[in-house]
Design brief:
Length: 437
Amino acid sequence: MIPRYARARMTAIWEPEMKFRIWFEIEAHALEAMAELGTVPREAASRVWDWWATGPRIDVAAIDAIEAVVKHDVIAFLTWVAEQVGPEARFLHQGMTSSDVLDTCLAVQLARASDILLADLDELLAVLKRRAFEHKLTPTIGRSHGIHAEPVTFGLKMAQAYAEFARNRDRLAAARADVATCAISGAVGTFANIDPRVEAYVAEKMGLTVEPVSTQVIPRDRHAMFFATLGVIASSVERLATEVRHLQRTEVLEAEEYFSPGQKGSSAMPHKRNPVLTENLTGLARMVRGYALPAMENVALWHERDISHSSVERYIGPDATVTLDFALARLTGVMDKLLVYPERMGKNLDRMGGLVHSQRVLLALTQAGASREDAYRLVQRNAMKVWESDGALSLLDLLKADPEVTALLSEQEIAERFDLDYHLKHVDTIFDRVFGG
């Protein structure tokens, strides 16, 4: 985790002290369940919980020092707890294996991280919805291949982004449910030395569901889907960031990132206002996507378990969730303060001499009796003159002066095909589909 791209609420989930606290809760709840079943003394569970009620400080350094000797993180933790609790601690971890603690803890951490990311998405969706309705009927040019195509509205751009991130929210909610499973099944997952009811008890207490069949680990296809989902969300972050970057280009300048008082864009050129935030988001998205592949490679483990996945998850668990949390918050800020320039949109819309209405003339000619090939030829030959004049000529004027066109359409019928509002007549329908009627 790089502090520059991290927020405290998410990083707290991955701090060593938090990890050990979750480990303790898993162990203590399992002990409590075993006490209820009569397999360990009730006094042992009471003693462990009484110690916890004192609000002990987790001595991370002391646990690390023990691990340096024993070379096993869970054993080091249990040894330290035993030093604090006393003889009753010997009943902790009865019939359990390290993966029961590690995998269940990771499930808790990923579930908590998901809750933060879901809240991030909710905040972003609220901003996108507000900006969509603000510019619902703000006309702008639609582009395909980066070239002027036909009119759209800036509100439709925002509605599209809203719909995309709403889908991402659904995907993340499903991925959260999929990854939030508990395994307290012992060595190789057979429950040979621990009652399955212990697993069910711990799962309920930790806000998880029971893993139907674990080996010695929770199956990693769950984690692969989770990190793949984060990668898809990151791709959507990049898509919207790229849109802003293109709109901020000097030649376009239909929208731009907010430029705060005192901000400087370049160490050399005082005039610069660069899209630094959205460029940063593009880079962060690449990092989050990069964590999806190792998560997929973690799925294929040897037999009932190996630890080839462990080192990978120590990286990607914190880094992917922390980075995406930061990216979503940054994107929300960008879109909230985005400067939008309707007048520049209007100028760009009119820049190419009415070429954006070419399809409507094409369709009118076919409806008037011309073959599609002839209609296309008539419109294109006039359109190319406008294109080559860089918009200095008017497509409407050229079409009115073309005898082959006027033989099929009157000047009024031609002019009617240059109505901008015609392209916006179904905006309400699209908004109803996205936001509900």
